[in-house]
Amino acid sequence: MDINKVSEDEMQIWNMWKGSFKRIFGRVVKELSEQTGLSEGDFGILDRLVQFGNGKLRQQELADLMNWDKSRLSHHLTRMEKRGYVIRSPLDADRGVQVIITSAGQAALDEALPIVSMAIRKYFLDQLTDQDIESITNLAERTKSDPSLR
After folding, report:
1. Are 120 and 113 a contacting pair, CB within 8 Å?
2. Is 28 exposed, middle or buried (0-12, 13-18, 19+ CB in 10 A)?
3. Tens digit of pLDDT for each residue in 33-67?
């Protein structure tokens, strides 16, 4: 067997996994958007600001956490600033920029969190057995520690 090729069965497993993820993720994002007006990117930015920065992060650190390039994040933040969800402030010590969640951004996040949680439960967690959870956890831990996936 050529290790550089994927068998038909392996490709089928890949496509099933990818399709399942896209369907589940799509349903969660759809409920988020329909019920709050936030996009996936809006929610991701607001959530990371609170979760990893207590409401504020350097713009580059936020880009890294979002796995977005600097330009994409900058454009998205401009749209979010216009809606009053975040502000950007230059840092005095260097040429960096700090992104800060506003009270409107915090309110939007507070409204969105239970909706996202319920959708994750409905479309993902309620479908899993204890064995599924163990398998997913093992896979996530293994891929998280694989240096080729960073």
Report:
1. no
2. buried
3. 999 999 999 999 999 999 999 999 999 999 999 99
Half-sphere exposure of 110 (CA within 13 A, CB side): 8
CA separation (Å) from 114 to 36, 85, 101, 120, 127?
11, 18, 19, 10, 19
For helices 40-53 and 103-123, angle between their N-to-C axes, nearest 10 degrees: 110
Residue 56 CB contacts under 8 Å (≥ 6 apart), including other chains: 49, 98, 99, 100, 101
- Ramachandran region, residue 100 (left: φ > 0; alpha: ψ -120 to 50; beta: rest): beta
**Tokens found for residue 115:** 């909706």
Give residue for tokens 């709050």.
36
Report DSSP state, residue 54: T
